[in-house]
Known about the structure:
This protein has 13 helices and ten strands. The chain is of the alpha/beta class. Strands 1, 2, 3, 4, 5, 6, 7, 8, 9 and 10 form a ten-stranded mixed sheet that branches. Helix 9 (236-251) packs parallel to helix 11 (277-291) and helix 10 crosses helix 12. It is globular and about 60 Å long. Pfam families: Glycos_transf_2. It is an enzyme of class 2 (transferase).
Amino acid sequence: MxxxxxxxxxxxxxxxxxxxxxxxxxxxxxxTYTDYELILLDDASTDNSAELLAKYKxxxxxxxxxxxxxxxxxxxxxxxxGILLAKGEWIWIAEADDSSKPNFLETCIEQIEKExxxxxxxxxxxxxxxxxxxxxxxxxxxxxxxKIKVATFPGKNxxxxxxxWRNTIINASAAxxxxxxxxxxxxxxxxEMKNCGDWLFWFRMALLGKVIxxxxxxxxxxxxxxxxxxxxxxxxxxxxxxxxxxxxxxYLPTISKYKRKLCHASIYRQIRKTKNRExxxxxxxxxxxxxKSNPTLDxxxxxLNLHLSFIPWILTEDRDRLRKK
Length: 325
């Protein structure tokens, strides 16, 4: 068993990812930073994940191997289950199908120890496919930020200017966060979500302290294109997105009406691309109800804003985003 105290608790929440578990766990055990415990959780998988995880039960770094008899219904409930078990001051949710560079944890902790009142730190990500082949492309959308290596921002500012527009933390495996801050959120709405819970979690965490961005691709995120398409096609992703935006606006009442309308219209522009007419009509009605606005008029407002974006003082998402100066 690991020591009774440690700096970091690494939580691996798994559901039906038996084929990736060895790669994931090896990427953790090969970390250059070693002051951690490993918590392995399985949410009633229907493959052979439980049998594989049981093999690690007596590993000196493993403190818990817990197999649910029934599925919890939300990955974020598994997050909180692991957080409540954790001994560490810092938490790393290492998703079961992802991987990481060996210096991921060391780099994160090194930056955390340079600052005070840090809520979370996150790195950049490479994407890989289901065969662990690295995919090309600037998925982080840094636009040259990698030249400055690292930046620290007041969390409230980051929430208002970055996280309000989109979830800039590509996936949980890219972040290390404060256990104490996470425990404040143990009864929050994100626990009941299936798609947008992580976005809401990072937003609320940002309001509790500073955020560090590390401009290195130290996380390796396995992108399942079929899952993303399914969420968009069925409309489930959008149904959670509307209340998430409204939740953020409640916590940030200083956001201007102009900026809110731009954000809402950007969402509707994506909804317009939905091919299933029945789902599109359903989402249009949900949009009207949630934002109390005419989606078509909002869409043309966005088009006008984009047309005028050559003017330096016209607000755009990219201009609003915080950058280290």
